[in-house]
Amino acid sequence: MYNSVTAVGDTTDQNSYWQVKGKTDTQCQRGTPVECGSTIRLLHVATRRNLHSHDFQSPLSHNQEVSCFGEDGEGDAGDNWVVVCSTQQWRRNDAIRLKHVVSEKFLAVPGDVYGRPIHGQKEVCAQATDSRNNKWKSMEGIYIKPNEEHN
User: Fold this and answer.
1) Up-side HSE of residue 49: CA atoms within 13 Å toward CB?
2) Structural domains in the chain?
3) Which SUPFAM superfamilies match (predicted)?
């Protein structure tokens, strides 16, 4: 089963929370820093489904569709994203890009807005080129202090 993924401007929207997980079939230890260039999954906290992409056209921008997929965090290779950043590790408030492992396209919000039934929400998709539309920051949430052995 798939769920649509959209973007909203409301920073207090509880549907905007994602948990960083290890890539498919891999566990990551809590408190381990996320290295730039590493492969992760993002688990939507409310639905327990993974951020996913596949070779379908998105409805508004006609880029690659992005959805939520899987049951309770179980999914497939379409759930894996590479953290692209210019430092050694992904840190709070750093701008990063997320590159889909299978398609090599970047997670983006090009600005296209839905009408009904999800009026005012922006399309989230994957696009082939890097741009200002595919820079992301982790702004709020629960951050685990890195283990001493990883410093």
Assistant:
1) 17
2) 2-140 (2.80.10.50)
3) MIR domain
What is the rounded CA–CA span in Å between residue 82 and residue 105?
A: 10
Supply the DSSP symbol for 93. T
CB atoms within 10 A of CB 124: 22
Tokens 């569709």, residue? 65
Contact criterion met (CB below 8 Å) for 97 and 90: no
66 with 124: CB under 8 angstroms?
yes
Strands (E), the chain: 2-4, 6-7, 18-22, 39-44, 50-57, 64-69, 81-84, 97-100, 106-108, 122-123, 125-127
pTM over 0.85: yes
Which residues, at least 6 apart from 42, have a Cβ–Cβ distance to it below 8 Å?
Answer: 18, 19, 20, 21, 50, 51, 81, 98
User: 98-127: per-residue pLDDT in tens?
Assistant: 999 999 999 999 988 888 778 888 999 999
pLDDT score of 15? 81
Nearest Cα residue to 65 out of 49, 54, 76: 54
